[in-house]
Write a structure and sequence with these properties.
519 residues; eleven-stranded mixed β-sheet
Length: 519
Amino acid sequence: MLLQRAAYLAAFFVCVVTAPLMAQDVTLTSPDGSVEVNGTLLGFDGEFYRVETVYGELTVDGSGVNCAGPACPDLQNYVAELSVSGSATIGEVLMPALIEGFALRHGYVAERERKDATHFVYTLRYKKDDALLGRFTFRVTNTDEGFADLLANEADIVMSLREIRLTENRRANEAGLGDLRGPNRSRVLALDAMVPITAPGNPVDAISPATLARVFAGRVTNWKDLGGPDAPISIHLRDPKSGLAQAVQDRLMAPAALVLDSNIVRHATNKALTKAVTDDPFAIGISSYSETGNADVLVLTGTCGFSLRAGRVTIKTEDYPLSAPMFLYIPARRLPKLARKFLTFTRSPSAQIVIRRAGFVDQAPEELSINKQGDRFANAISLLGTEINLTEVKRLVKVLSPMKRLSTSFRFRAGSSALDAQSLSNVQQLARAIETGVYDERSVTFVGFSDGQGPADGNKTIALRRANSVLAAVKKAAETVDLSELNISVEAFGEALPMACDDSAWGRQVNRRVEIWVR
C-alpha cells in the first residue's frame, strides 16, 4: 500500500530491500498542544501530510503542526517521491524522454537506475549543488497492472493505453481516489493509433474496420476473401493484459458485437509483434502507429468510398477512427510539488517537441487551412442528395473558407452526450490556451457535425447542441478568463461534412464531432 511505501520509501532506495515494508504511526500536534492527530502516514508532499486515522483519511497542513514518530519526514531536506505504474509502451520510452526533458528545462540532473526487468528509478538533483530533489519510481508492465497498483495504493499515477473500466472507476471511488472518469482526473500525454499491418509485398493494401473486426474474430480466415492469395490468415496481437490489445477489443471489436478469436498469436512487446508479422507473408496484426517497423500499414476504407490513412494529422484530429490516446490517470489527492511541476511541463510546447522526437504524436494545436482539406470537401460534394443540398455545402464553404481548423477535436462517448476521455483532456488544453491569451483578438468558432442517421434538420440541431456543450465545458475550465469578452461563436452543419462512411459504428463515431475553427 502507498502508506506502507511512503513511510519507508527512503529506506527502500538506500537499502534496496525487496520485502514488503510496514508503515509507521505518526502523531501530528498543533503548536499549543490543543489538537492531536494520531494515525498512519500515507504520504507527505512537502506541504501537507496525508494520514489514515480512525476518522478516515485526513489531509493536514504541515505548517500548522509538529510531527512526532519514526515515519516523520525530514522537513529541511525533503525529497519528493512519486510512484508511476502501467503501460510499458509509455513507461519505457515516452516518460523517460519527458523526465529528461523536464530536468534539462529546469536545470536539474536526471539519473536513471534499473532495478529489475519491470522497475527503474529516476533521481532528480539540483545541478548547482547536487542536492537530492526527488525520486520517481516506475513499474512498467501493462495497463491492467497499473490500475491494480493504483487501487492497492501502490501507485500515484497510472500510465494507460485505454480508458479506465467502469468497474475500476467504481473501486477507485470507493477507495477515496475520486471519479477518475471526471475532469482533471486523466490527461492525454500523447497520441498513438491502432494500425493494421501486413508483411511487405502483401497485395492487400486496404481493409474496412468491419472486415478487420471479422478477421480478428476468426470469421474471415483466408486472404482470398480480402482480395489476396488463397492462403490462411495468421492473426497477431499484443498480450491480453496490454492496453493496446484491450483498446482493440473496446474500439474495434465491441462496436461490431464481436470478440477476439482465441487462436490469435500473442506477443509481449510491439517490437515482437511487428517482427512476427513482417516475417510472415500471410500474417496480419494490429500494432501501435509508433512501432510499425518495416511492416506495411493498411488503409481503412468504407463501402461509400472514403479512406483514412493513419498519419500525424489524422491521429491528432481523431479523424482516424482507431486512435489510441496515451493516458495518465491521476487520483484526487495532492501530489508533491515537483510532481505537479512535471505534469505541468508535459503540456508545454517544449514537451510536445520531446513527444515528437520520441516517435509519438504530440498535442500541440495545429492550424489547418481549408486548402489542405480538399478531400473532406470533395467527400461532402460527392454525398449531395435529398438530405444535404448544394445550398448547405455552399454555406459551409462560405463560413469556413476564411478560417483555419484547429487539430483539437471533440468527440463523445458511444451512445452518450458526454465527452470521451481524450476530449475531456482537450477541454483542459484549449482552456489553458485561452487563459494564456493564445486566441486574444482572434475569432474562435465551435462547429458541430453529426452522422447521417436520421433527418438532416434534426442532425443539425443535435450538432448545434453538442457544439454548445463543448463551449460550456471550455468556459467552465477557463476559470481565469471571461470568455464573453472574446470573439467566440457557435455554428453547426450537421451531416454536411462527413469524415467517414456512415455504414458502420466506427464511421458514425468519427462523424459525430465538434471542431474548432479560428481566424
